[in-house]
Amino acid sequence: MESNEREPAEADIPPAVPPIDPPVAAAAAAPVPSARPPADPPVEPPAEGAAERATPPRVPGIAGLSAPYRVVTALALAVVGLAACGHLALVFLHVAPSNTVSKQHAQTVDGWIYPEFEQNWKLFAPNPLQQNIAVEVRAEVRSRLGGELIPVGWRDLSAEDGAAIRHGLLPSHTRQNELRRAWDFFTGSHDEDNKPIGERGELSEQYLRRIALSRLTDDGTGARGEIVRIQLRSATRAVPAPPWSDEKTDTQTYYRELPWWTL
């Protein structure tokens, strides 16, 4: 009796629970990862006016201009291109050998070329210069003391110009071309008797006279007295043939004297 009173009742005894391994239980309790990648976060709609503020980048060059500006630019480029092609065509006709086109449009070609675009060389020149032409001058000066005329001998102006530019790093354009072009201008506008042909002949005579007088004044000839009159002449000498050539060349000097010009 006593022993039964000390034992608990069957209803008070808790049911037996089997033991559970702790790692296995934790693994079973953890959530199983999904094989799918996580979804992208939701994209918020753009704010109002953002599309209007975003402007595309400007296209470089003429294509980036508006339609009116593209038309104006294209017209300007076309005009410049046509002008350049026309200028090159007229220059080519001027320097090319004489042909039917250059003869037919000679007045147009000369009107465009002279004087700004003048060329003193020819394309495919068949007859290059083979002579040395020197321009010389002499004068008569009236003495300030007795009023007598004092002759001044011939001076080679071309030789002086050559000496002034020889061995020079920056030779003077005036020394190279002024006197030479003036003499070519004179001979091209005068006949064999040294008579002027038209107004250009008279103009070339005045131009050559002023150049000669300027050289005499700078040289100090005018310090001797008043220069009364001057005279010019050309000395033409053929360029001798090279030593290896059998060509015979007349190297004698030929003079062309102009009449005295009273100042």
Helix content: 40-55%
Overall body shape: elongated
User: Radius of gyration, Cα only, in angstroms?
Assistant: 52 Å
Mean pLDDT: 80
Calculate the terminal CA-CA distance, rounded to whole Å.
Answer: 178 Å
Structural class estimated from helices and strands: alpha+beta
Largest sheet: 5 strands, antiparallel
Number of helices: 9
Query: H/E element string?
Result: HHHHHHEEHHHEEE
Strand content: 15-25%
Short summary:
With 263 residues, the chain is α+β, with helices and mostly antiparallel strands.
Write a structural description.
By secondary structure, this protein is α+β, with helices and mostly antiparallel strands. The protein is built from 9 helices and 5 strands, in the order ααααααββαααβββ. The protein has helices at 2-6, 22-29, 50-53, 67-95, 100-104, 106-113, 157-165, 173-188, 198-219; strands spanning 131-143, 149-156, 225-238, 254-257, 261-262. Strands 1, 2, 3, 4 and 5 form a 5-stranded antiparallel beta sheet that branches. A hairpin with a 5-residue loop joins strand 1 and strand 2. The longest helix has 29 residues, at 67-95. Residues 24-29 have low confidence and may be disordered.
